[in-house]
């Protein structure tokens, strides 16, 4: 049976809860300490983006298998304002929040697969996968 | 939640042993600066041995606390950054520029002494 967990993000505590749930599942799937840190950090960035820009949303984490490969999938979704300029948001150093601007491009580098769908005034869904090596 | 700050002669010693949420990180930043001011500390060691994850927000808070302390005239050394944390930070493209670091608390204190005397 494949494990699946949802964490609602509607406060800063949701960010902590999401990364704790992520670390737990990553460990259970069998990721080493470095990949556990990568996955946990990616979840933290995604959860913070939800909280900062959409106020609330959800992080879904699940185990995935595909043609013999095992991995962990993270889906971050919200019904916030959406992302105006998808290309800029993936540029290093681009920030509208006064942060480091490392968030989304950082997540993309930490993970193996990364996809983003965003519709203005509808929301944003980011799907990302880390494969077990 | 508050992170305890210990005083040792002219130094402050801090070992971060809690999961850092945003509020705790920001309060920590203020507490360190207040304590430097109160105690007239010349150096601060922040030990991160127990920290399993540093994301871009926490990295910014840590980098800022180093710069802010420098402004006040105190040197900060970060110690004990775990291998997985170092790898993740570099993967993310986060460079903690000009932040003094050391392997552990002991070497951190030595580094502070060198910086302050040199």
UniProtKB/TrEMBL annotation, chain A:
Domain of life: Bacteria
Keyword Methyltransferase: no
Domain (Histidine kinase/HSP90-like ATPase) ranges: 34-133
Keywords: ATP-binding, Nucleotide-binding
MF GO annotations: ATP binding
Gene3D superfamilies found in the cross-reference section: Histidine kinase-like ATPase, C-terminal domain
InterPro entries reported for this sequence: HATPase_C_sf, HATPase_dom
SMART domains: HATPase_c
Pfam families per the UniProt record, alphabetical: HATPase_c_2
Protein name in UniProt: ATP-binding protein
Automatic annotation (TrEMBL), chain B:
Protein name in UniProt: RsbT antagonist protein RsbS
Pfam family of the protein (one): STAS
PANTHER family: RSBT ANTAGONIST PROTEIN RSBS, RSBT ANTAGONIST PROTEIN RSBS-RELATED
Domain STAS: 1-112
Record SUPFAM superfamilies: SpoIIaa-like (SSF52091)
